[in-house]
Inverse folding.
Protein backbone atom coordinates (compact mmCIF):
# COMPACT_ATOMS: atom_id res chain seq x y z
CA UNK A 1 0.00 0.00 0.00
CA UNK A 2 0.93 3.64 -0.16
CA UNK A 3 3.29 5.04 2.43
CA UNK A 4 3.92 8.59 3.47
CA UNK A 5 7.29 9.66 4.81
CA UNK A 6 6.79 12.50 7.25
CA UNK A 7 9.69 14.48 8.65
CA UNK A 8 10.98 15.45 11.03
CA UNK A 9 9.77 12.87 13.53
CA UNK A 10 9.98 15.44 16.34
CA UNK A 11 10.89 19.07 16.87
CA UNK A 12 11.83 21.08 19.94
CA UNK A 13 11.64 24.81 19.37
CA UNK A 14 11.48 28.08 21.25
CA UNK A 15 8.33 30.15 21.32
CA UNK A 16 8.33 32.60 18.45
CA UNK A 17 10.30 30.42 16.06
CA UNK A 18 8.96 29.27 12.72
CA UNK A 19 8.39 25.56 12.03
CA UNK A 20 8.46 23.55 8.83
CA UNK A 21 7.53 19.91 8.29
CA UNK A 22 6.88 17.88 5.19
CA UNK A 23 5.54 14.66 3.72
CA UNK A 24 6.70 12.77 0.69
CA UNK A 25 5.24 9.79 -1.11
CA UNK A 26 6.20 7.41 -3.87
CA UNK A 27 2.59 7.58 -5.07
CA UNK A 28 0.59 10.45 -6.48
CA UNK A 29 -2.19 11.84 -4.32
CA UNK A 30 -5.00 14.09 -5.48
CA UNK A 31 -5.72 15.52 -2.05
CA UNK A 32 -3.36 16.41 0.77
CA UNK A 33 -4.52 17.18 4.28
CA UNK A 34 -2.89 18.26 7.52
CA UNK A 35 -4.26 17.33 10.95
CA UNK A 36 -3.20 18.22 14.50
CA UNK A 37 -3.69 15.92 17.47
CA UNK A 38 -3.38 16.96 21.11
CA UNK A 39 -2.76 14.39 23.86
CA UNK A 40 -5.71 12.10 24.50
CA UNK A 41 -7.81 13.71 21.77
CA UNK A 42 -8.78 12.97 18.21
CA UNK A 43 -7.05 14.77 15.32
CA UNK A 44 -8.47 18.04 14.05
CA UNK A 45 -8.27 19.10 10.42
CA UNK A 46 -6.03 22.14 9.86
CA UNK A 47 -5.79 22.51 6.11
CA UNK A 48 -7.06 20.62 3.04
CA UNK A 49 -5.36 20.97 -0.35
CA UNK A 50 -7.06 19.89 -3.58
CA UNK A 51 -4.92 21.18 -6.43
CA UNK A 52 -1.27 20.67 -7.35
CA UNK A 53 0.69 23.82 -6.56
CA UNK A 54 -2.00 25.13 -4.23
CA UNK A 55 -0.78 27.23 -1.32
CA UNK A 56 -3.30 27.71 1.50
CA UNK A 57 -3.12 29.56 4.79
CA UNK A 58 -5.06 29.19 8.00
CA UNK A 59 -3.92 31.88 10.42
CA UNK A 60 -0.26 31.25 11.19
CA UNK A 61 -0.32 27.97 9.27
CA UNK A 62 0.56 27.66 5.61
CA UNK A 63 0.51 24.45 3.59
CA UNK A 64 1.37 23.64 0.00
CA UNK A 65 0.41 20.84 -2.38
CA UNK A 66 3.56 19.90 -4.30
CA UNK A 67 3.61 20.26 -8.08
CA UNK A 68 4.50 16.59 -8.54
CA UNK A 69 1.53 15.64 -6.31
CA UNK A 70 3.91 13.46 -4.31
CA UNK A 71 4.65 15.88 -1.50
CA UNK A 72 3.28 18.56 0.77
CA UNK A 73 4.67 20.82 3.47
CA UNK A 74 3.26 22.66 6.46
CA UNK A 75 4.76 25.82 7.94
CA UNK A 76 3.85 27.37 11.28
CA UNK A 77 4.99 30.92 11.84
CA UNK A 78 5.74 32.55 15.19
CA UNK A 79 5.02 29.44 17.23
CA UNK A 80 3.19 29.66 20.56
CA UNK A 81 2.88 27.11 23.40
CA UNK A 82 -0.56 25.95 22.27
CA UNK A 83 0.95 24.74 18.98
CA UNK A 84 2.22 21.71 20.91
CA UNK A 85 0.90 18.45 19.53
CA UNK A 86 1.37 15.84 16.84
CA UNK A 87 0.92 16.99 13.27
CA UNK A 88 -0.13 14.41 10.70
CA UNK A 89 -0.15 14.65 6.95
CA UNK A 90 -2.61 12.54 4.97
CA UNK A 91 -3.10 11.84 1.29
CA UNK A 92 -6.07 10.64 -0.70
CA UNK A 93 -6.27 9.11 -4.16
CA UNK A 94 -9.75 10.30 -5.24
CA UNK A 95 -10.79 7.29 -7.28
CA UNK A 96 -13.58 4.84 -6.61
CA UNK A 97 -13.48 3.29 -3.18
CA UNK A 98 -10.20 5.01 -2.41
CA UNK A 99 -12.17 8.23 -2.06
CA UNK A 100 -12.79 7.06 1.46
CA UNK A 101 -9.26 5.95 2.29
CA UNK A 102 -6.66 8.29 3.65
CA UNK A 103 -3.01 7.33 4.00
CA UNK A 104 -1.51 8.97 7.08
CA UNK A 105 2.07 9.86 7.85
CA UNK A 106 3.51 8.82 11.22
CA UNK A 107 3.35 12.34 12.56
CA UNK A 108 5.65 15.13 13.72
CA UNK A 109 5.70 15.73 17.47
CA UNK A 110 6.09 19.45 18.12
CA UNK A 111 7.23 20.79 21.48
CA UNK A 112 7.35 24.54 22.07
CA UNK A 113 9.40 25.91 24.95
CA UNK A 114 7.96 29.15 26.39
CA UNK B 1 -23.42 21.21 19.65
CA UNK B 2 -22.74 18.89 16.73
CA UNK B 3 -20.01 16.35 17.01
CA UNK B 4 -18.92 12.77 17.41
CA UNK B 5 -19.16 10.96 20.71
CA UNK B 6 -17.13 7.87 21.46
CA UNK B 7 -17.59 5.70 24.51
CA UNK B 8 -16.12 4.48 26.69
CA UNK B 9 -13.00 6.63 26.77
CA UNK B 10 -11.05 3.91 28.60
CA UNK B 11 -11.73 0.19 28.48
CA UNK B 12 -9.98 -2.82 29.93
CA UNK B 13 -10.56 -6.28 28.62
CA UNK B 14 -9.36 -9.74 29.42
CA UNK B 15 -7.88 -11.84 26.67
CA UNK B 16 -10.52 -13.84 24.84
CA UNK B 17 -13.33 -11.33 25.39
CA UNK B 18 -15.10 -9.37 22.72
CA UNK B 19 -15.64 -5.67 23.34
CA UNK B 20 -17.78 -3.11 21.54
CA UNK B 21 -16.83 0.55 21.16
CA UNK B 22 -19.62 3.03 20.57
CA UNK B 23 -19.56 5.90 18.07
CA UNK B 24 -22.44 8.33 17.60
CA UNK B 25 -22.54 11.46 15.42
CA UNK B 26 -25.11 14.22 15.08
CA UNK B 27 -23.45 15.99 12.16
CA UNK B 28 -25.75 14.33 9.61
CA UNK B 29 -22.68 12.90 7.85
CA UNK B 30 -23.16 9.98 5.51
CA UNK B 31 -19.70 8.44 5.84
CA UNK B 32 -18.21 7.05 9.05
CA UNK B 33 -14.85 5.46 9.78
CA UNK B 34 -12.87 3.57 12.38
CA UNK B 35 -9.12 4.07 12.71
CA UNK B 36 -6.57 2.46 14.95
CA UNK B 37 -3.62 4.42 16.36
CA UNK B 38 -0.54 2.86 17.92
CA UNK B 39 2.27 4.85 19.61
CA UNK B 40 4.51 6.57 17.06
CA UNK B 41 2.36 5.37 14.20
CA UNK B 42 0.02 6.99 11.81
CA UNK B 43 -3.66 6.18 11.75
CA UNK B 44 -4.70 2.95 10.06
CA UNK B 45 -8.16 2.40 8.64
CA UNK B 46 -10.13 -0.54 10.06
CA UNK B 47 -13.57 -0.16 8.45
CA UNK B 48 -15.58 2.54 6.77
CA UNK B 49 -19.21 3.00 5.86
CA UNK B 50 -20.51 5.16 3.04
CA UNK B 51 -24.17 4.69 3.82
CA UNK B 52 -26.53 2.93 6.19
CA UNK B 53 -26.46 -0.88 5.96
CA UNK B 54 -23.22 -0.86 4.00
CA UNK B 55 -19.59 -0.96 5.10
CA UNK B 56 -16.22 -1.82 3.64
CA UNK B 57 -13.00 -3.27 5.03
CA UNK B 58 -10.08 -0.97 5.44
CA UNK B 59 -6.42 -1.93 5.64
CA UNK B 60 -6.52 -3.82 8.96
CA UNK B 61 -10.04 -5.28 9.28
CA UNK B 62 -9.03 -8.74 10.55
CA UNK B 63 -10.32 -9.36 14.07
CA UNK B 64 -12.82 -6.49 13.94
CA UNK B 65 -16.50 -6.20 12.99
CA UNK B 66 -18.87 -3.28 12.51
CA UNK B 67 -22.51 -2.53 11.81
CA UNK B 68 -24.31 0.50 10.40
CA UNK B 69 -27.99 0.17 11.20
CA UNK B 70 -28.52 3.90 11.71
CA UNK B 71 -26.94 6.90 10.03
CA UNK B 72 -25.84 8.27 13.39
CA UNK B 73 -24.20 5.14 14.76
CA UNK B 74 -21.21 3.00 13.75
CA UNK B 75 -20.14 0.65 16.57
CA UNK B 76 -16.91 -1.33 16.38
CA UNK B 77 -16.50 -4.77 17.94
CA UNK B 78 -12.98 -5.90 18.74
CA UNK B 79 -13.18 -9.67 18.73
CA UNK B 80 -11.01 -12.25 20.43
CA UNK B 81 -9.54 -12.98 17.00
CA UNK B 82 -7.69 -9.65 17.04
CA UNK B 83 -4.17 -10.65 18.07
CA UNK B 84 -2.97 -7.30 19.37
CA UNK B 85 -6.01 -5.25 20.36
CA UNK B 86 -4.41 -2.82 22.81
CA UNK B 87 -4.55 0.53 21.02
CA UNK B 88 -6.24 3.92 20.75
CA UNK B 89 -9.34 3.70 18.55
CA UNK B 90 -10.68 6.72 16.70
CA UNK B 91 -14.06 7.10 15.07
CA UNK B 92 -14.60 9.75 12.40
CA UNK B 93 -17.23 10.97 9.99
CA UNK B 94 -17.33 13.11 6.86
CA UNK B 95 -19.58 14.66 4.27
CA UNK B 96 -20.06 12.55 1.16
CA UNK B 97 -18.40 15.14 -1.07
CA UNK B 98 -15.51 15.84 1.33
CA UNK B 99 -14.41 12.39 2.32
CA UNK B 100 -10.88 13.49 3.20
CA UNK B 101 -12.08 16.09 5.68
CA UNK B 102 -12.65 13.94 8.72
CA UNK B 103 -14.27 14.94 11.98
CA UNK B 104 -12.86 12.75 14.74
CA UNK B 105 -14.21 11.73 18.10
CA UNK B 106 -12.07 11.91 21.23
CA UNK B 107 -11.04 8.29 20.97
CA UNK B 108 -11.33 5.12 23.06
CA UNK B 109 -8.25 3.59 24.65
CA UNK B 110 -8.52 -0.20 24.87
CA UNK B 111 -6.13 -2.15 27.07
CA UNK B 112 -6.08 -5.94 27.09
CA UNK B 113 -4.94 -7.39 30.38
Amino acid sequence: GQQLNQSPQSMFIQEGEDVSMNCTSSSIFNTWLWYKQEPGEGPVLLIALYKAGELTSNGRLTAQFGITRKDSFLNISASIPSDVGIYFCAGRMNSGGSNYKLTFGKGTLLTVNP
Amino acid sequence: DGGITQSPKYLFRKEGQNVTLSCEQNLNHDAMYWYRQDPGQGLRLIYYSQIVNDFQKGDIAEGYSVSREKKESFPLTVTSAQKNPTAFYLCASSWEGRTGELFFGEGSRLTVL
Summary: The interface with chain A takes residues 4, 31, 33, 40-45, 48, 50, 56, 58-59, 90, 92, 98-107 of chain B (CB under 8 Å). The mean pLDDT of chain B is 94. The longest strand of chain B covers residues 43-51. Residues 9 and 108 of chain B are 4 Å apart (CA to CA).
